[in-house]
Amino acid sequence: MDADQIRGLQPMLSGYMGEFDDCFVRPESRTHFRTYVEGQLSDLDAKSCEPIALAAGIPPRNLQAFLATCQWDEDGARERLHQIVVRDHCGPNSIGIIDETSDVKKGNKTPGTKRQWCGTVGKTENCIVTVHLGYATGDFHCLLDGELFLPEDWAADRDRCREAGIPDDVGYRPKWRIGLDLYDRARRNGVVFDWLVYDEGYGGKPQFLREMDARRQAFVAEVPTTFTGWIHKPRVTERPFRRARGRGRRTPRLVAGSRPAICVKNMLTYSPALRDQPWVRYHVKDGQKGPLVWEAKQTRITIKDEQGLPGMPLHLVVARNVLDPGELKFFVSNAPPETEVQTLLLVAFSRWRVERCFQDQKQEVGLDQWEGRRWLGLKRHLIITSVSYLFLARVREQLREKKSGAYRVPSARRGGVVGAKLVAERPRVGAIDRAYREGDPTLATPHRRRPPEPHAKNAGKTAGNGHLPPRPHPLPMA
Predict the structure, then answer these.
(1) Model confidence over 401-424: pLDDT tens digits?
(2) What integer is the mean pLDDT of 461-472?
(3) Distance (Å, whole) CA 235 – CA 238
(4) Euclidean distance between CA atoms 319 and 329, whole angstroms
């Protein structure tokens, strides 16, 4: 950024915050909102209420009361944030990402705090967990919404909830149910997602997948190895089955002798549809540590419905890390049957965008630095933090150079491609020989006419004749 661009940030920020003015009836609340946002965007080492207030020259209690007790329309501020994203940043090939993050807390007064799995430190710790909905299109990404996960023991202790200011109608909800509510709220506010992506904590819940499919929302979900289904859909009959004694079986039911559903890990090991299918190599994208290359197999499966009968048909994609073949990922998708596997992989590996949002919000605007004991204060902190981060995303989009968009995701509904490209391994001898001569790092062959290059530590045991390992070949998804 040059000096003129830096000087233009303050007027840009003032105009941006002015779009939220009607969420505040009293001018004092409007001023405190601006103070909080400017504090989160400042270079303060700590960005909780007290250091932000002291830096602005106001009593910390005023800013704490603004979050926890003052009357203003926080739901309206969240709706306005959605409207700004739809108006200024919505685009084709958009992705919604549902994920959670956690923050370590001391004591037991913070709403929702307890000893539970804390992904931030990678172990069970005293923390709070919040579920979020992210949005990404092209080079733009932000967080649209977030809510506190209230554990069951908290929800059962209503006296403790009232002490923390938790309304009586707020109780325990599974994390996938919170994610579904965040999605429904964004859709009501006009946000459209071409795809929805989530990890195995959400993809492993068949009811969540059924709810998304009922909303006609295309998704790619990572699932655990224990996720079950059928490759060959069993037959269902309405004919009653009578035993010599006792009750007959309920109907409808699977016909006698039908094979039970098996987990996806066993499908890969034992089912010919996957076991005998060759791995195909795909260059997903270029990451900070180099090219992200995975091998994949794909088939169609059917999962159980609420009655345990064959229900929704899905794609099953098995991906294996080329650099670490022991790392396997399983993905399912309700995309149309003709959707190509490289499209599903590209969508599946777009989940890193929400992780980047979490990292930026914690490092830049203080998402994890909330200090308080009131549920309303935490809710407002999550909303204002998303407002602050959206401003950073807008500035970044305006000031940085526009990239080519080589890895944009194709639309699940339109079937078109906006500059999307993946790399799949396939034989093209002329292009391969030319790649070896010209040093093209994106081309390779499945025909190993020469032995592969050895590992670096065994390089001394081989003749130094410059043998090259197989490398992927670019395949446009169009």
Answers:
(1) 544 444 456 666 544 443 334 444
(2) 41
(3) 10
(4) 5
Residues in a beta bridge with 327 = none
Mean predicted confidence (pLDDT) in 443-456: 37
For residue 316, the 8-state DSSP code is E
CA 168/CA 173 separation, integer angstroms: 13
Angle formed by the axes of helices 27-40 and 9-18, nearest 10°: 140
Distance CA 318, CA 183 (A): 27
Give dist(CA 132, CA 356) in Å, integer.
Answer: 13
* Rounded CA separation 186/312 (Å): 25
Quote the tokens at residue 195: 């795809």
Q: DSSP secondary-structure letter at 36? A: H
Hey, how many other C-beta atoms are within 10 angstroms of the C-beta on 56?
A: 18
Residue 116: its H or E element: strand 114-118
pTM for this predicted structure: 0.82
Cis before 252? omega within 30: yes
Are 143 and 102 in contact, with CB atoms under 8 Å apart?
Answer: no
Each residue's pLDDT tens digit, 168-208: 999 999 999 999 999 999 999 999 999 999 999 999 999 99
Identify which of 131, 133, 128, 106 has the alpha carbon closest to the alpha carbon of residue 117: 128
